[in-house]
Amino acid sequence: MKALHFIIVILLIAGCLQKDENQLSEVDIKNEIINAEKRFNEYLLQNGVASAFHHFAAPEAVILRGPNNLIKGPEAIMKFYSDPRYEVAKAYWKPDKVEISKDGTLASTWGKYEWISVDSLGNETKSEGIFHTVWKKMPDGKWKYIWD
Hints:
Helix content is 36%, strand content 36%. The protein is an alpha+beta fold. A six-stranded mixed sheet has the order 2-1-6-5-4-3, with helices on one face. β5 (124-137) and β6 (143-147) form a beta hairpin. Residues 33-144 form the DUF4440 domain.
């Protein structure tokens, strides 16, 4: 009888320690974020800045542009980037670092970017900098940015 109780206790403990089969590993989540960054960049190059920043924005997305200019929400972000100076702009970036929350629903990336704008005479201007993006996993499983 003691052996049966012991076996039941061991099985209960083992059941509590099992990982949910649907739960992704930290490496899997980091790869999802790297792929989201890659898709975001590819989408921007194919569809333009305004469309890309709108498409990948979570409903609560906020971007900081300039020292004190917060643009809140996908529609406001799209309006901001609909300015003609962004119509032919391009950007290239790749995260150097990806951090994820313990529960796997938030992630932060940073790295270098290159921004290329073209003036009305067709002259290109390149600028470089560091980006920081915060990503949130949506109920449908897609990752959208909440801060950029």
